[in-house]
């Protein structure tokens, strides 16, 4: 009583070091277990099978405009994907990827998807598209964004 080292007597420094080491080991091991199980729960590999895409790309015409369309759906609507974005790329025979601009969901607005309901992803095939047989040189905006004919249709800019 009255001593700040009331539990340990003189010459017990080995016991103090042992208890300290055991407490540090226990805290580190608990932190590892927490991180391990948290990373298992938040793994995205299991989410990769959650979205189903069509295995065919539809090319259709509507109002004289040609569109490439595909659909996607979230098969596990009980745990929906949040902040899903759509991007579409064309891989040519030289293994070079060309980004395709999207009309729906509009990539000017970030290409947000709500895959809990069947969603169409649409690319307008115009003379600026990598899928177009008659290509014209790309026109770039002030910020370097490649413009497209559909932008004049959606009133984002004047026709070329």
What do these coordinates show?
There is one protein chain. With 160 residues, this protein is an alpha+beta fold. 21% of the residues lie in helices and 23% in strands. It is built from 2 helices and 8 strands, in the order H-E-E-E-E-E-E-E-E-H. It has helices at residues 13-41, 150-153, and strands spanning 51-53, 58-62, 65-74, 84-85, 88-91, 97-100, 112-113, 119-125. Strands 1, 2, 3 and 8 form a 4-stranded antiparallel beta sheet that branches. A two-stranded antiparallel ribbon has the order 4-7. Strands 5-6 form a two-stranded antiparallel sheet. The radius of gyration is 29 Å and the shape is elongated. The termini are far apart. The model has no long low-confidence stretch (mean pLDDT 79).
